[in-house]
Please model this.
Amino acid sequence: MDHREALFGGGNRRPLPGRQVQPGRPGGYSPVPPRPSRDDPRQPQYDNTRYYDSPPPNTGRDAYRQEPPPPGYSKPGAYAGQAPGGQITLHVEKNKDQDSNICYVSEQDFPRRPGEYLYLLLGLQGGVVVTAQPAPDVPSGEIRMNKAQRTWCQVSDRPMRPEDYFPAQMYDGPKSPLASVDIELEFASKPTSVVAPLDQDDLENVFLSRFHHQILAPGQQGMLSYSSYYFKYRVKAVQVLDPRMEKSREPSSDPLQRGLVSNQESTKTLLNFFPVPPVKLKGSRKRPAANAILRPDFKFADMGIGGLDEEFSTIFRRAFASRVFPPGLVAEMGISHVKGILLYGPPGTGKTLIARQIGKMLNAREPKIINGPEILNKYVGASEENVRKMFADAEKEYKEVGEDSGLHIIIFDELDAVCKQRGSGAGGGTGVGDSIVNQLLTKLDGVEALNNILLIGMTNRKDLIDDALLRPGRLEVHMEISLPDENGRLQILNIHTAKIRKANRLAKDIDLNELARLTKNYSGAELNGLVKAALSYAFTRHTKLGDVTGVMGDPEDVMLTRDDLMRALEDVKPAFGVSEEELESAAPYGIVHYSPHIESILSNGLSFVEQVRTPQNAPLFSVLVHGPRGAGKTALAAEIGLKSEFPFVKLVRPIDVGTNEGAKLEYLRRTFADAYKSPLSIIILDRIETIIDWNPIGLRFSNAVVQYLSSVLQTSPPKGRRLLIVATTSQRSMLDQHGALEFEREIAVPAVKDLRELHALLSATGKFDDPADINAVIDELRSITGSENVGIGVKAIFSAVETALVRRDQPLATTVAAEISEIIATRNPGGL
Model:
């Protein structure tokens, strides 16, 4: 078989010097002609100033392996006195030099020539190329090869006819160096003692210096001595630099893909070592790991997550920055990579989506997604085994390749389901919950800790997770994924409307900046639901009435408009927002400015709002609104909350917290936790004396609730959060008796003082058609009570007017006056 044809394909080829193509056989050659004389003038002549016998300075190595080939050296058989390929039969003999990749041939068969690198194509297994060196002690017709070379070439003592092979034959241009080589490295014989990890950078320098200008190909084997040990190496794959394309080809394991090892800075070959245990290598200090942590084609804009730029920047800085740098440099500085990230925050803010996109961002294996409850198993020990299975692949690879192992990402959703505080009894009587936490702790930061894992845990209840799991070395990066701000909401809305905009179905009257301002405290999931709700209105406009399955008009006319989005705002309400309906129900009659002190109360309350809003001021402020029953305390507090324009306003009523002390504490704790998730919050504690179970008989109250409220009144919210606490009570003396609840400011809400204020209040109700009826009520009331004082709350007066409107047996003025006088007599027995 013609091995040149096997290497470079059949077909017509130009004849080599001195050899003619046989007619009728494409690519074939005629018998070899007689060897021409060295004095033949047709042979090219070269300057013989530099010979291989003169080694280059400062190397101590044979010049044959160091000197570059002369210009014009591109064709085989172009040198005077060189043995034409295929004419010499060589017998294989053993070479005792095991630590070399060079074969030795006779100077009589292959005379030394200046600047010449001798490569022989051996006709075995489709052709392999060896680097040869003429030696004076080798007889003619002999080629000496060591054991590794004979094994690779699969030869014994049978004769063979080598052909000259030159790097120029790989392409029609200059010789091509290797861009990179993947090398498998193992001990030639198992060491008797533990061997310290080898310096990868120094090993690379030694390999390049010894194999400079030699040809390597996938499958090639050899021996290498380093650090007093002998190693067997095998070339797994090569990446050849194609000079015609001025870039590297894709890595290949094809044995016919060959190239030259280069130790020059401009074309230096990159070596990737793959150690076979027990060989261990130190990480390189010069270049990143072979497995780059970040995908080169990844763009943050493609993640489809908005409003989390700062969070992603923090996650990258804390968890991935150290993985980008060379492993040797990281090890030299004594740094261990971050192994765990905890993402926590309200539901719907994108924690799971972030974890999935981090997996796409990294040049790692497909992340393992574990749902917390799936870990649990009814069999004894099976739950702990499931935890071990999570880390099995990472553990196996880390034992094989150490720090060169790829990154294994584990996404653990609902982490609080199985990692609750140990000793809390959360795992039942078997204690399986504690065992799961212990197993997880040992895998993350135990005696045989892994450095190639990244555990991303997600939870809505960070407070339930065991403290040992949250310390540095385990889940040490804690990232709160909170509700997006206005800029974040704009990014999210742009993402969810991108396809609608691309399809030209977004009306021109839609202003996403306006929508971002209106959607305070909406989570990402709620904004997605808002867009879908708006689209449902757009589809409904093109649906036939009475037939929801029919389409009216042209479906191509479907367009999302501003009106659709405004209507959707009424359908989709934020879980952590302002319940306007609830606040408005606290003032069913509205706010009636029957007296100057009403305006003063609202003005003071809004000034406290501005005080909390200002970043330079304290982040926590508390106000007590007190006054007689029915004076409008709750209505005024709710009005302050509505006018504040804070994204989170929560009205806590006694009926909401329940009657059980434990239930009250849990409700209050959850309410304040929700408030801490918003940058600006107001909590209104309505009728605080009822919430704490105050009873003046025996001075009874819930001490646990009082102590909790006392703590939150004195504890500042988390960084970046600001909170205004407003409490209402009709038992101001209660606070003085137990002294546990202290407020920074107080606002007094008096009752309707006199008949003049009553006249203004009745006029504002709009219940009287004739103003004379209001004057009649005042005159009648003055006649009954004999006084100008009233002293009851606005709620009682509105109730009296509504009762009088129902009774038609007497004039309206008379009935209203009678109802109000009765209430005055009941509330103030000595006032009549």
Notes: The chain is about 35% helix and 15% strand. Residues 596-613 form the longest helix (18 residues).
